[in-house]
Amino acid sequence: MVKYILTGVCLGVGGALLSYFGNPASSGICVSCFMKNAAGALGLHGDIRMQYLRPELIGFVLGAFIAAYINKDLRSVSAGTFLLRFFVGIVLIIGCAVFIGCPIKMIIRMAAGDLTALVGLAGLLAGVFIGLKFIEGGFRVGSPDAVPQAGAYLIPLLMGLLLLFLLIKPSFISFSIKGAGAQHAPICLSLFIGLLIGALAQRTKFCITAGLARLFLWGPRDVPGCPTSAGMLVSIGTFLLSALITLSATGQFSLGLHGQPSSNESYGWAFLAMLAVGFGSMLIRGCPFRQLVMAGSGDNDAGGAVLGMLAGAAIVQNWVLGGSASGTPYNAKIGVLVGLVFLFTIGLLGRERS
Amino acid sequence: MDWLDRTSIIAIACLVTAAFVVTFLHRSDGAPTETPKTASRAPTSNLQLSEIKNQEKKIRNLMESQSLEQAERLAMKMILKYPDNGEPYMLLGDIYLRKQDVMKALNRYRDAVDRNPDYLDKKTPLFQGKKLKSVILEGLSELEKKVNSSDDDELGKDRKLIYYLQRRIAGACG
Fold first, then answer.
1. Are A57 and A33 contacting, i.e. CB atoms less than 8 angstroms apart?
2. Any CB–CB contact under 8 A between A268 and chain B?
């Protein structure tokens, strides 16, 4: 149980400190925002305000890799669903972009007093519920089999390369001088927190959607009887609590519905967007953060999800599929609806029927 | 075909219908089919920039000498000539503020910020975050006064404007 509490505390305190020391407000940790920044730095989109190779993202994968390697848990596995996870990864980022945050950022926003994040939580819970029904109804992504061990090193190597680019700053990698991409905590702090969280998340298999799913699977009364379920929920709870305390102590807490950073008044679309994120996460066995950790631990299919999220981040910026302070643009609404149609379709087609 | 299949098919049909409805509503609102990307506007040429700077000086001088009507006319002409540049809107906002019309000023500031997010970015020389925050506070106190007297529609619009600017400032680096 200690490791679960430690994971939650590191996430909460780390997320709050990162925004205190330079990351955008309420975005101390956000997989979707960081993916958009990374895509911009790599030249996959042209938004000059969103270009930075976030060390936190690199840290999550490398931290998980190091923890898996040390504990002899690094296994190259694949269930042959690389392409499926790639496309679901795109849908996850579209959903996160419309909500203006991934499930991790949703918790941080809630801890910062942003009441609009509760709409996202409701959507996420609904999506997790729907995904569970498909899994109970026979949806399978196949069981992971061992594949050549070289596959386990690909995503960690990619992240290592990005770390090198971040440090030496070659001319073909862009770095914003203004806007959200220019707001970042010191590299050492970001990398340290990323590595720590990645390692702990690898050991505890931390995942927000999996934790919430266990509430539906076990019910609130029986959850304490299952150590893993209880541990996951304790992680989420301590994450929220420690973020709340740290954000309050650093003057970043402001309770209210209006004037919150990374929010808008498109509550219906925020709900649907997080429903897509919850649903998609259940189908591919993990939220966006969990995909990074699994990819660092050797899961080749999760690597597909990570690359899909990167591609999705580029698509979101190029096609204006994300929400903003003014609301949800038309393209983003269609993106969410098409994403949901895609998820229901693959849910239907992926069911094993006797 | 079990209940999950039936529910999924109904959900897909509803989602596709929703997409058509959203598209229909979007087109009937008269909105452009392409969503403008504010980050990739065509850059203003150096000649245009120097002309804008000269006009800005003239307008500021007129404001100092209390010739607000003339300043407003000049600012309006600038908007017609440079509709995508934020500076004319920022100037017009300052003029309305001098005229004590806070809500009109906030509307122009919104237009300026939408065209150039640098006004909310502390790392740029155009940063105006502190001024905008204080004008928003003035707008909020005006809203409170209006609660009993104004009609709901106007109040709703003013409130939305203030909340929007508050969100923009909260999410910016400033």
1. no
2. no
Residue contact B163–A137, C-beta within 8 A: no
Question: Does A25 sit within 8 Å of B4, measured CB to CB?
Answer: no
Report the residue from A179, A325, A344 with minimal CB separation from B12.
A344
Quick: pLDDT tens for A144-166. Answer: 888 888 899 999 999 999 999 99
pLDDT single digits (tens) A21-42: 999 988 899 999 999 999 999 9
Of A261, A329, A351, the CB nearest to B170: A261
What is the SS3 assignment for A347?
helix
Confidence (pLDDT) at B37: 42
> What is the mean pLDDT of the segment spanning A342-348?
96
Q: At residue B47, what is the residue type?
A: L
pLDDT at position B149: 62
Q: Decide if A314 touches B, using CB distance below 8 A.
A: no
- B31-58 pLDDT, tens digit per residue, is 554 444 444 445 567 778 888 888 888 8
Cα separation values, B79 from B20, B105, B155, Å = 36, 15, 27
Contact B171 A25 (CB under 8 A): yes
Are B11 and A345 inside 8 Å of each other by CB?
A: no
Q: Contact A90/A35 with Cβ under 8 angstroms?
A: no
Does any CB of chain B come closer than 8 Å to the CB of residue A256?
no
- Distance of alpha carbon A207 from alpha carbon B16, whole angstroms: 31
CB pairs under 8 A between A and B: 92
- Assign A151 to helix, strand or coil: helix
Q: Phi then psi for B134, rounded to 5 degrees?
A: -70, -35
Instruction: Tell me which chain A residues have a C-beta less than 8 angstroms from the C-beta of B40.
Output: 46-47
Q: Residue A267 in contact with residue A122, Cβ under 8 Å?
A: no
* Residue A327 main-chain phi, psi, to 5 deg: 135, -160
Provide the pLDDT for residue B150.
56
Q: Tell me the C-alpha distance between A157 and B23, whole Å.
A: 43
Q: What is the mean pLDDT of chain B?
A: 84
pLDDT at B41: 47
* H-state helical runs in chain A: 2-20, 31-41, 55-70, 82-99, 103-111, 117-136, 151-168, 187-204, 208-222, 227-249, 267-283, 288-296, 300-319, 330-349
Q: Compute the nearest-CA separation of B70 from chain A (Å).
A: 32
Whether residue B99 is predicted with pLDDT greater than 80 in this model: the reply is yes
> Which pLDDT belongs to residue B30?
67
Of A25, A48, A177, the CB nearest to B170: A25
**Residue B151 pLDDT:** 62
Sole residue written with tokens 């799913």 = A213
Backbone angles phi, psi at A143, to 5 degrees: -95, 135
Extract the tokens encoding A10.
């590191």
By Cβ distance, the residue of B23, B31, B167 closest to A263 is: B167
The CA-CA-CA angle for residues A85, A86, A92, to 5°, reads: 80
